[in-house]
Amino acid sequence: MRSRPVPDLVEAATNGDRLSLARTISLIERGGDPAREVSRLMFPKGGSAHTIGITGAPGAGKSTLTDQLIRHIRSEAGGEREVSVLAVDPSSPRTGGAFLGDRVRMQDHATDGGVFIRSMASRGHLGGLALATPEAIRALDAAGFPLVIVETVGVGQVEIEVAGAADTTVVVVNPGWGDAIQANKAGLIEVADIFVINKADRPGVEEVERDLNWALDQTMWPAWRPPILKTVSSTGEGVPELMAAIEEHLTTFEKSGELAERRALRLTDELAEIVARRLEAKARAAVGESRFDDLRTRMTGREIDPHSAADQVLESIS
Question: Which residues contact 126 (CB under 8 A, 6 or more apart)?
């Protein structure tokens, strides 16, 4: 079967065809010229969705919490508010449209036309998930979803970058998760707009809250100090309060102009990353793999320093 032209696919996706939307995200995952064309066509059609990043250590209950957020959002306003979820897994090369691990429970929403859930891994996109994710978010935005939730599987560098690229970033921790030093080591204090102590029906909640408050006290928060909320995602306890805090954060940042500034900074960073990735690919192709390997060998042998080696690589495209 012949694949549909990208413009037709994008038009169908932005007119509500969920299968076409899934296929556009697959193109984004694969990268190359079709992904660039999707990005070019989708970009002018979006810009209004509120993106919510949810990150935290594995086992923190992020997927269950996301599931409860979906239920809460869909129950508001008579089910008129639609939501999409991008479940990002940098460790899996073959997620496609499948649900990962404990995300299976989110299939309960599969028959709800107001919910779109997609698991995604980078399968060839230049720049990996750090660049594929914002493009997938734009596709969901252009498809008309006012809310896009981005859930990551852990707290590695990629996950923090992905979640931190949202308008509002929610960091989920558990009782017994660890102290403020661990939070600082993981870089969570810097990216968090809201902290959630999930599984708050277990012992140790006060200790985690104390440690997080201590860590937050070490940083200046001129406009917004991340609140610390408690939830029990298995029952939905605390989820309405979490959604209220997410909306308060959006409203506060919209009024202050911080939201527009944050989005502009993300686009600037994305541009710089795209240029860097393309130049790297162009330079490696021009210099050739054998010479590139030779330079690496010479650096390992201390015959040449990295900057001088880079000069030789860049000379090949000058």
Answer: 31, 274, 277, 278, 281
